[in-house]
Amino acid sequence: MKEGKTIVVVDNPEKSSSSNVAGGIYNPVVFKRMAKSWKADALVPFAIDTYKSFEQSYGMNPLWDVPIMKIFANEGEKKLWLQTWNHGEMDDYITNKILEDPYPDHIHNPLGASVVLQSGAVDVSKVRETIRTRLAGNYIKDDFKTEDLKLTKEGIEWKGVSASKVIFCEGHLGSNNPYFPKLPLRQTKGEVLIIEIPDFEPKHIINRGCFILPLGNRLFKVGATFEWKDINETPTAKGREELQEKLNAFLKVPYKVINQQAGVRPTVVDRRPLVGLHAEYPQVGIFNGLGTKGIMLAPYFANEFVQHLEKGTPLTKEVSITRFERG
Ligand SMILES: Cc1cc2nc3c(=O)[nH]c(=O)nc-3n(C[C@H](O)[C@H](O)[C@H](O)COP(=O)(O)OP(=O)(O)OC[C@H]3O[C@@H](n4cnc5c(N)ncnc54)[C@H](O)[C@@H]3O)c2cc1C
Fold this sequence. Notes:
The protein is built from seven helices and 20 strands. By secondary structure, it is α+β, with helices and mostly antiparallel strands.
């Protein structure tokens, strides 16, 4: 739309959607390895600028100013953090400032904590709602079936809509897309809890084995689990217990579980998005595989894809679907 193009979105909101349960968190640091997340230097500023630009385009700001506070679970984690800070290349994302005992009434925190710079969260449902409203008549609530899609010389036709291209952005449901059978799109289930904690108003997302994201009105989202076998959208007792166990390890105060949600992430074997046009039918494209990091990845690669479609600029080779079509 920014490029002056008209787009029509066909979406069945009744269908499974990972974005509906996502925390909306962006984090440039991979805590396990204390390494920079892939392409963080390019992705994070681009994502922040994009979400900020919603203020001007749509009159709303979806960014929540809640940087991630990492609570050190053991001496090893703290040591690694401080060693990593010394390396230089992570200085845009972490500092050597250790907070001795933040939120002492609520968080068990004997080894201290530190804050991730350029991290935070996005109100995903607000983004979706705003864009749907903006699309107005060009947002069509319907089931998209490939049987209804006709490829023509000029482009495509679907139920009376003509367009130069169709781009499949189906999330994990794209793993059954008949146009892209070779792409290794996988499904990773994740669960979150919505909890209520009275009299606690942290200015951070708190992370220690799981995250606690403040939603306002005493509510918090706690997540997330990872499950590769039983793929469905049903919350489980196992998921709840796993999250509560992690939470109980550092939350000092009682809380009430208000809700539990499950979703399925569209993941890829090499953990990179799937972007590009079909090798034989150039009027058919895909934008998928956002995995665990849709918030950071989507703005940058959506823009890159548009430039590719409009100007023929090459796609980053790690995301281009040609990496799976060659061999
Ligand atoms: C528990 C959990 C927590 C997460 N937390 C985070 C987080 O904190 N930060 C982060 O960056 N990412 C997070 N993620 C990952 C994030 O949700 C995904 O990266 C992202 O939402 C994927 O977006 P998508 O648009 O590709 O897919 P989806 O959100 O699944 O959207 C696909 C859409 O396509 C529609 N659709 C599919 N097929 C059809 C059809 N045939 N006809 C009509 N409509 C169709 C669906 O209705 C849906 O609306 C989390 C995921 C889970 C499960």
